[in-house]
């Protein structure tokens, strides 16, 4: 599947910002050089979707920042990659506008570690479970649109079929997330059996944090997803880890080193408190039987 423009945009933007700051060139001077507004420069440097990147922009900025010719050529080559649409763009309105950035990151990630308190992660949801979540969030959505979102989620889940050296997903869920009755008893029973089945694949591990544990850090951290990326042939272009936090009306992306360190510590604490994989499967199946 096509990974899209997210990672090339972020690579290019991050490098341009670092080069500008090292050269001592002001934002105003950079804007004047390529005749854009300050807000557009900010969007370029932070890898946001929207601004149309051109070779001449990057070439001009590299000259302004006194970038060596070979390094400039590498950055200019990224411009073409920023124009590649991701596979999910074919689904149009089925993909929420604020989810586009996350999808690009998810598609490029080599390892994904997620901790969920209330709902199971989308990559592991059955069609009926996902349908129930969509109906709850958008009760007036036409059925055809709901089914388009179900199809889109199913295509996302194809990442789970990749070899484990290309993609790994470490899932930690609160016991509460597997007890919430999403869609009714039969839906939950099917979902939990599916969760156990997926946990036996080479790509996915699933571990549960019981409600009885006395360790509040996971509650303080809340639900989050840590995405880590493979090394780039040009080491300085390697995408640093990103923490994604989904909210009811939007999302938060954290990538500052101090923020990543905090969440890696949270991952370590959560991993230490969670049941092992076998005990987690036993608990999930016990709860599944309660729904039968």
From TrEMBL:
Instruction: List the SUPFAM superfamilies.
Output: lambda repressor-like DNA-binding domains
HTH cro/C1-type domain residues: 16-72
Signal peptide coordinates: none
A Pfam family of this chain: HTH_31
Organism superkingdom: Bacteria
Which PROSITE patterns does this one have? HTH_CROC1
Enumerate the GO terms in the molecular function aspect: DNA binding
**Protein name, please?**
HTH cro/C1-type domain-containing protein
């Amino acid at each position: 599947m096509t990974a899209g423009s997210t990672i090339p945009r972020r690579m290019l933007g991050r490098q341009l910002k670092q080069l500008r700051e090292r050269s001592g060139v002001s934002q105003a001077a950079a804007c004047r050089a390529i005749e854009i507004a300050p807000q557009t420069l900010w969007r370029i440097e932070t890898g946001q979707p929207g601004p149309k990147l051109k070779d001449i922009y990057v070439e001009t900025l590299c000259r302004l920042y006194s970038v060596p010719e070979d390094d400039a050529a590498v950055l200019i080559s990224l411009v073409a990659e920023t124009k590649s649409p991701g596979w999910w763009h074919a689904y149009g309105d089925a993909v929420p506008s604020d989810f586009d950035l996350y999808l690009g990151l998810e598609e490029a990630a080599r390892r994904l570690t997620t901790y969920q308190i209330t709902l199971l992660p989308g990559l592991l949801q059955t069609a009926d479970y996902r349908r129930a979540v969509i109906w709850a969030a958008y009760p007036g959505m036409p059925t055809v649109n709901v089914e388009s979102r179900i199809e889109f989620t199913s295509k996302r889940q194809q990442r789970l079929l990749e070899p484990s050296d290309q993609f790994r997903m470490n899932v930690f869920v609160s016991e509460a997330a597997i007890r919430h009755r999403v869609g009714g008893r039969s839906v939950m029973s099917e979902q939990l059996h599916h969760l156990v089945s997926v946990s036996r694949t080479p790509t996915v591990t699933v571990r549960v944090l019981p409600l009885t544990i006395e360790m509040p850090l996971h509650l303080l951290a809340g639900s989050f997803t840590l995405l880590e990326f493979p090394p780039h042939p040009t080491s300085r272009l390697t995408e640093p880890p990103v923490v994604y936090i989904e909210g009811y009306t939007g999302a938060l992306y954290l990538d500052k080193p101090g923020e990543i360190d905090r969440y890696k510590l949270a991952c370590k604490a959560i991993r230490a408190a969670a049941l092992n994989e076998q005990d987690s499967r036993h608990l999930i199946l016990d709860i599944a039987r309660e729904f039968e």
